[in-house]
Amino acid sequence: MSRTFVSCLGVTALALLSACGSDHDDTPATTPPVAEQPTTPPVAANTSVAFMSDVHFHDVYGDLKSTQFSGIPTKDGKNATIRTMYAQLTSTRLFNENYFAFRTALDDAYAKGIRVVAFPGDYSDDAQPMNVDGIATVLKEYQAKGMRFFLAPGNHDPVEPYDDLEAGKNDFLTKDGKEQKVYATSNAACVAKDPSVVCTDQLMEQGYDKLMAKLGEFGFNPNKADLHWETPFSKYTGGKYSYDEAVAQSAVAKREFEICAEGAGGAWKAAGEARLGKSYTRCTNMVDSSYLVEPVKGLWLLAIDANVFIPNAKFDPANPKKFNGYDGAGNAGWNKVLTHKMHLVDWIKSVTARAKAEGKQLMAYSHYPTMDFYANQTEAMKAAFKPGAFQTARVPDAATAAGVAATGLRWHVGGHMHFNGTNDFADANGNYLVNVQSPSLAVYGAAYKIITYKDLDTVDVRTVALNTVARFNELFPYYQVEYDYLQGSTAAADVAKRWGRGILDTRSYGEYTHTYFGELSRLRFMDEYWPCEMKEAAMALNGRQMLIMSQLDTRVTLAQLKDNPGVVPLTAACAATGTPSGTAVAAAQLTADWREATVRAELVAASAGLKLDDFARITAYDFYGDFHRTVYAGELALRDMGQERVNQYKVLMRAFPANPAPVARIGDKVSDQNAVQVAYQNQFKQVFAIFKGLGSGKPSDRFTIDLKGKKIGNADSASMSFN
Questions:
Q1: Cα 640 from Cα 151, distance rounded (Å)
Q2: Which residues, 6 or more positions from 630, have their beta carbon under 8 angstroms from its beta carbon?
Q3: pLDDT tens digits for 243-272?
Q4: pTM for the complete prediction?
Q5: 150 in Cβ contact with 219 (< 8 Å)
């Protein structure tokens, strides 16, 4: 677990938090005008804040409030309301074990003296009552110990801006190891009284109104203990903060803005219409749950609601609260904030200017990244993999980072991508913005961030990995029943859902999530992201064979592999049939060419002080699992691999020809008349370049943000990189 620093280590209760800072003028500024520079700048509080993103809390012992199905009875009288292992292994998040990881993270933060915790969205599974009530119960438990929690919404909370009474899940686990459908009561199957479906509104998806009402005490509403609290719409009498006025202005009805299909409504509508040369359409009022709070003297938490739900073709002005009248927020992010939530942009400008004038330690967070989060590898990933692979549609446009930086915001914590990483942006006007991606607790690389201002221009960031989680294997006996059922069933649908039992032998949460990501890669990512011939190579070649393939120079074609099948474990199954040339060599020549390539590969390995045969320990399963783990966990994945494997990958990254032969294609398929190595060398040169970039980005484990010097410094001498 990462080392951590907490300046107020002696703090043990909320009431003592303010003791971490020195006295200063804490009179809040008027909104929106910028406060005047105080004659004596306040001394910073230096309070450490834990950021826990994408918790995706699912109450594994929740109450479905159904007589049809209450989960799996347990020995202690509870019911395990859990999803299947297959569902977990084909999802980009765990549904069940993160329940235990969340408690471990809270316990760890508390033990480190952390009393303020921020959540950059997706704190719930899908905003279902059972799960929202469950996380509220957990937060209240820790709140009673002196911790404070500040939520920002994600695209899973809410999934839609208004209640969805038709939602549900197909994959709750039964005591017999089978799947059970559980839907909200207005779902078509429930209306039709389908006997195979369990119907309960505990599985509905709640909109803003219910979420803010149930979770208001966790930041969405003012608290008497706070020194200041406001929304983008707050106006305080005489510019002086008033708790009573804050309470009145916290009502959902007073936190609405106009949004249209084409852009921001309200005061910005006329300018937008003039720019487009047409009227805005499908305009409606929408809730913005953003808020600014000062829970500790000198510390400002800016919780930004960057959800943008845009009215779509199904929008009904006569029924604007129909949930399916809006596009989801998942792919919109900051790209659409800058076009559809202009009130938010102006407010952020006001907040950042006031924070600078008053010497506040501003910590801003939202659910979405503000810039490229793939270590600037996005365009290369789009070129190498299938369209839409790795959810590149969620990467902010280049202009978006500039737009956010122009608000004056200097650093921001995002989530959404279940990704651990850091990036920065600087423009010609002197604006500098750092985006810190807080990883999820529900995936491989599970971790949270601890962030502390060392001074007003220096920010310390530490990543706390959750490799050890108490009770992480508590539900394994129920998965064993599922495994046995799938193994014993001959139904095609069940056979297709069989998963590797090895995950039930894992001995720690770190090992468990590592294995989970290997299975996620095998069961989903390889089909969904990798072109056919790339998938075949990635799933067939070990590290030794990959290095030899990088050195192979043969004229034997893919079509001829069937005539000499024992040399390279590849086929022409993914290729289109082409016309052989009259200069083809015999398939037997591949044996000699492979032998020569092996000699060259041995020399390449030896030049790095390594042995070629040792590369065989990198199985195909290891390779594509490592690649995907690095996509999501960055620097944390390299630490998990260990130095030897990192060194082996570095050899592979520089082993390919400088200019591989171009790939001949027939339509959108590789031609089977390509020489055996051509497609591999061309495509995997790109793959390994992306791999290197992902593992050589800005520091993401323990680092310092120098806001004055406009740079990110690595604070961990033991960190690993592919550079």
A1: 31
A2: 637, 638, 691, 694, 695
A3: 999 999 999 999 999 999 999 999 999 999
A4: 0.92
A5: yes
